[in-house]
Amino acid sequence: MAFNAAKMSDALTRNKIEVPSGIGDGVLLDVFQGFVHELRAAGLPVSMTENLDAMRAVEIVPLSDRESLREVLAATLVKHFRHRSAFDTVFDVYFALHSGGVNPEEDAGRGEVGDAEENGGVPGQQGSGGSGEGVSNEEIAEMLLAALMSMDRDQLRELAAMAVSRFAGMEPGRPVGGTYYLYRTLRQLDYEALTGRMMQRAAEQVLDGETDSPDAPESLEARFQREEYEARLREFRDLVEAEIRKRLVADRGVEAMARTLRKPLPEDVDFMHASREEMAQLQKAIEPLTRALAARLAQRRKHRNRGQLDFRATVRHSLSYGGVPAEPRFKNPRVSKPEIMVVADISGSVASFARFTLQFVYAMAGQFSKVRSWVFIDGIDEVTNFFAESDEISEAIHRVNTEADVVWVDGHSDYGHAFEVFHDRHLSEVTSKTSIILLGDARNNYHASQAWVLKELRQKARRLFWLNPEPRGYWDTGDSIVSDYGVHCDGTYECRNLRQLERFVTAVIEA
Amino acid sequence: MAERFSSVQEVVDRLRSVDYLSDTGIAGVVYLADRLEKPILVEGPAGVGKTELAKAVAAVTGSRLIRLQCYEGLDESKALYEWNYKKQLLRIQADREHETDWAVVESDIFSESFLLTRPLLEAIRCEEPIVLLIDEVDRVEVETEALLLEVLSDFQVSIPELGTIVGKQRPIVILTSNNTRELSEALKRRCLYLHIDYPELEREKEIVRVRVPEIDEALAEQIAQVVRSLRSLDIKKAPSISETIDWARTLLLLGHGAVDQEVIADTLHVLLKYQGDIAKAKKELVTEGKSILRGTESGKTL
Q1: Most CB within 10 Å of its CB: which of A75, A335, B239, B287?
Q2: Residues 6+ apart with CB under 8 A from B18
Q3: Both B91 and B207 in a single domain?
Q4: Tens digit of pLDDT for each residue in B176-202?
């Protein structure tokens, strides 16, 4: 490998890039390889070629600052924008930055937890940032407000360091995630109320005390101002987060830290255990994903099988070859789009799964000739109209959750009863063009399964699928009766994340 | 060959001289592409200046821009080369009386004079400096992507009848994608990756001022603020940079010196292209003001 470790080591130290554990020639290569390894562990597909490119790139580009190292590595290693945030996290851990001047004490104490304890629980940071002794909490708050108003970035960085020292209460070796410290710090700073206080401060400066009553709707200017302040606060929050991360790395070492921060990529997030933040990410990921899938399927459908020979077109085209039918022309094949019925369990345990799947299916509605949907817990209700009447899928989903009449007796899942009602009301509408998709974990609370319904449905329908958001290992444990239903289905699929959902929808449309 | 840029900062400065405002991310990747001789794959929402980047790079390096616009159904004969069948037929027919040896005819009709060059081959055979832009590469089918691979990794084309044609230079190659589908791993592996997103407030303001020089700073600031506000809404299609610039020009033409609610309501259709989005934005940005008015009026009457 054409890799000049000495040169790179030199470049890195010159530019204050902090490399964890002692800097040495072989070690540096190890650091980069550790970095790549961690990216792979986080789920990013980094190939050998890309790895080599990154090493070449690091040599070529003069590392004038840490940000360009970040960009260079990102350009060579990360080939999908959804993976960028995962990359940034790993990068921040592996290439933590000294704040301000290099503090020799900090270097000496690196990795020794005992030393950190002597420093009052905070490794390093005795220099400029410091914990700001002699400054009261109110003064910090006041300084923060002032710095945010004037957007003094250096001052903000210092304040972030100070706030973390004082409020996060970090203890070496304590197995707590960074989010916990972040939460503590921000709570002490009264983060939520800061936008309001900044707005107030700005109003005071402009109007000299004469302000609108606080509950009046905001004007255009006020709105812009609020958005500006919110953006500044987000920046400050990021600074605090970076500061905490830096100290955690110093405390626990790079690899351990990277492991704790490892998060699944959006397409691998488990529907059933997604945090609220991950939910928002999924929400964002679903739309481009469906658009991409629709485009791909439309293309493939068009090119998969050609229609009959178009004699007229062939003869006409042959004229340009002097009457030789060199290029036969074909008619476009007639496409038959499947009709879809979705029947989804929306009881608490699987609600988010049902929501994403419905959203996904409706986003793909153009690929089907007709989509109808039902939701149930122990009662069942058709919700097709909600989607037809609402312009936006999210609005429809909201109506499904609030308006659908899905409780029959006690609001605990009863698949048997729901299926029975479905059978009575809608069996006649199932035709040989219909594909039926059933969603749920089949945890039936020990009610009767009424699996005969599925048997009859399958006889009438084109195909019948079951999607289960639980890992396959949990199927048929406890009150789960997937197999009772599964024997009557054309397929039962584990569907825990977007990746699996996408694969399933592709299969349904293409078959 | 000689490098085109000597530092990342130089890329920023020179792009700026042709009115393209880059940032460290964009300039860094362009610099890297020049040094590593690798193509750049640019992704991002529509209208953030992906194609513009290629044009700007061509302009600052004094190169000719060769553009291959991709579309569904693009194939070898449109992207690389095609034999001129009609001319070949003519050649064979013209030859009937002379009864030339078939081998001679064959070698003749498969010579370069019967070859129609398409953008990729043209780029490879070009003597002068060029920038090759392969636009909207996500529109071609996955199978067709493969024909780009040889060009991208080695900058050469193999034509069965003629052999391999190797490029005389390594130009900067820029591919753009709107992300309508996932590109193949093989393609991504050969490229440097650059994701351009909507710009920060400050940069957007700068872009407006550079592109619409007649505009004054206060108005540019307001424009950038409105656009940021709109992008934070949950709408189908957020306004792109090009739409921001269009809007700035519109305001100038209409002689608005400042943005207020009425102006926004009247000209919102320049920024947003869906009726639903416009209605939503009006609800968020415009009616609020009316209720303020009502609020103060009722306050006075009290």
Answers
A1: A75
A2: B56, B59, B60
A3: no
A4: 998 777 788 889 999 999 999 888 888
Give the mutation candidate from B141, B145, B181, B283 for the A interface (greatest A CB count, under 10 A). Answer: B181
pLDDT digits (tens, 9 = 90+) for A425-439: 888 888 888 888 888
Question: Is B12 found in the same domain as B41?
Answer: yes
Residue B140 lies in a domain: yes
Q: Residue B1 domain-assigned?
A: no
Q: Is A291 on the interface with B (CB under 8 A)?
A: yes
Together in a domain, B181 and B144 = yes
Structure-token pair, residue B2:
């000689």
Whether chain B has a CB inside 8 Å of the CB on A48: the answer is: no
Question: Same structural domain for residues B152 and B285?
Answer: no
Contacts of B189 in chain A (CB under 8 A): 47, 49-50, 79
pLDDT at A100 over 70: no
Give chain A positions within 8 Å (CB) of B43.
81
- Whether residue A355 contacts residue A399, with contact meaning beta carbons closer than 8 Å, is answered with no
pLDDT digits over B110-119, tens only? Answer: 888 888 888 9
Using CB atoms within 10 Å of the CB of residue A448, give its burial: 0 to 12 exposed, 13 to 18 middle, 19+ buried: exposed
Give the total number of structural domains in chain B. Answer: 3
**How much is the mean pLDDT over chain B?**
84
Of A89-103, A208-222, A449-463, B157-171, the least confident:
A208-222
Higher-confidence position of A266 and A469? A469
Question: At residue B205, what is the residue type?
Answer: K
Choose one of B195, B228, B249: the last residue of a domain: B195
Q: Which residue has better confidence, A419 or A412?
A: A419
Q: Which of B136, B161, B195 is the last residue of a domain?
A: B195
Boundaries of domain holding B97: 81-117
Beta-carbon contacts of A221 under 8 Å, excluding residues fewer than 6 positions away, are none
CB–CB contact A224 B225 (8 Å): yes
Q: What pLDDT is recorded for position B173?
A: 93
B222 and B284, same domain (yes or no): yes
Pair B141, B240 in one domain:
no
Residue B299 lies in a domain: no
Task: Tell whether the model's pLDDT for residue A2 goes beyond 50.
Answer: no
Give yes or no: residues B130 and B248 share one domain: no
ipTM over 0.85: no
Question: What per-residue confidence (pLDDT) applies to A303?
Answer: 59
The reported pLDDT for the residue numbered B41 is 94
Residue A129: pLDDT band with limits 50, 70, 90: very low
Cβ count within 10 A of residue B276: 12
Q: Do A220 and B289 touch (CB under 8 A)?
A: yes
Domains of chain A, start order: 5-94 (no CATH), 106-262 (no CATH), 279-304+336-510 (3.40.50.410)
306-335 in chain A: CB under 8 A from chain B: 320-322, 324, 326
CATH number of the structural domain spanning residue B168? 3.40.50.300
B25 occurs within a structural domain: yes
pLDDT tens for each residue of A6-62: 555 554 444 444 444 333 456 667 778 888 888 888 888 888 888 888 888 888 876
- B102 in the same domain as B68: no
Question: Comparing C-alpha atoms, which of A338, A344, A359, A350 is closest to residue A289?
Answer: A359
Query: Which residues 215-254 in chain A show a CB within 8 A of chain B?
Result: 216-220, 223-224, 227-228, 231
CB nearest A61 (choices: B32, B259, B289): B32
Mean pLDDT of A107-134: 41
| Mean pLDDT (whole number) for A205-213 | 50
Distance from chain centroid for Cα A178: 18
CA contacts within 13 A on the Cβ side of A471:
5
Q: What is the Cα–Cα distance from A130 to A141, expressed in whole angstroms?
A: 16
